[in-house]
Write a structure and sequence with these properties.
9 strands, about 270 residues, 8 helices, 2-enoyl-CoA Hydratase, Chain A, domain 1, two-stranded parallel sheet, alpha/beta, 2 domains
Length: about 270
């Protein structure tokens, strides 16, 4: 049986160097020339990512001719749980975590754009429920409620809910000294890693064009956004040495900054 370690965020492409992509998984699973058909054991640690990429990975694992056993060793959160559902046998080590939640999207635009984003989210949730339903025997409305509640589960809770088939021994302890004490994932750290994925994909709203007095931009709460062309996560929406934008007439800019993060009006 071959062994494969999957550790990182799930995404369509490699941007930061810590992603698992459908292409990289396919090559690791099937081989460069689709020569592999033997059984596979995958050890998975992922804080989620792209639902579309995870669905492609789910389909790829399901189509693999050999038997695939997946052991969650660390965390399987968000989109990573979609990939995990493809296993012929799915296990968790005793100290691992499993998290399901509603899908999210970062929308920008007018009322129609936002309505379409809501429709997309609803369709995405239904597709995730379809995948969960291939393994979990819980009623669909119960699964939906767990997603809406952002349910974090340890191995026992995930087993009781029917998401996994069993609890595996943690045979990858870092040293004999710790062999008798199962590793336990810190939930706060896991939640921070999930949030880090969301933060790196926050959109950077366009700057208002000079002369367009009706255009304004609302920036994220932390007025920073990490983008693929800024691996260090330091891309800012403005230079610290730039003069502050002029205030427009109407509501005080300070009030809008508190409520929306930062309002950047443009005027002639």
């Amino acid at each position: 049986m071959r062994e494969l370690q999957l550790n990182g965020y799930i995404d369509e492409e490699m941007w930061f160097g810590d992603e698992i992509t459908p292409a990289s998984l396919h090559e690791a699973l099937y081989g460069a020339d689709n020569q592999f058909t033997d059984d596979m054991h995958i050890r998975l640690n992922s804080y989620g990512g792209s639902c579309n990429a995870a669905t492609r990975m789910f389909d790829d694992v399901r189509a693999y001719p050999g038997n695939v056993r997946i052991t969650i060793s660390g965390t399987a959160a968000s989109a990573a749980t979609v990939l995990a559902m493809a296993a012929d046998r799915l296990e968790m080590t005793p100290g691992s975590l499993f998290m399901v939640h509603d899908p999210s999207v970062l929308a920008w635009g007018n009322e129609r754009d936002l309505s379409e984003a809501i429709s997309l989210l609803k369709a995405c949730k239904e597709s995730i429920l379809n995948i969960y339903g291939t393994r979990c025997k819980m009623e669909r409305n119960e699964l939906a409620a767990q997603m809406s509640a952002t349910a974090w589960m340890d191995a026992n809770a995930a087993l009781a809910s029917g998401f996994i088939d069993g609890i595996a021994e943690d045979d990858a302890s870092p040293s004999p000294i710790n062999a008798s004490k199962p590793r336990t994932v810190n939930r706060a750290e896991a939640e921070a890693k999930v949030q880090a994925w969301l933060n790196r994909h926050k959109p950077q709203p366009p700057r208002p064009f000079k002369g367009d007095e009706h255009t304004s931009s609302v920036l994220p709460d932390d007025d920073q956004a990490t983008r693929p062309d800024d691996p260090g996560g330091t891309a800012q929406t403005g230079s610290p040495t730039s003069p502050p934008p002029p205030e427009a007439s109407g509501a005080p800019i300070a009030q809008l900054q508190k409520r929306l993060g930062l309002l950047m009006p443009a005027r002639r």
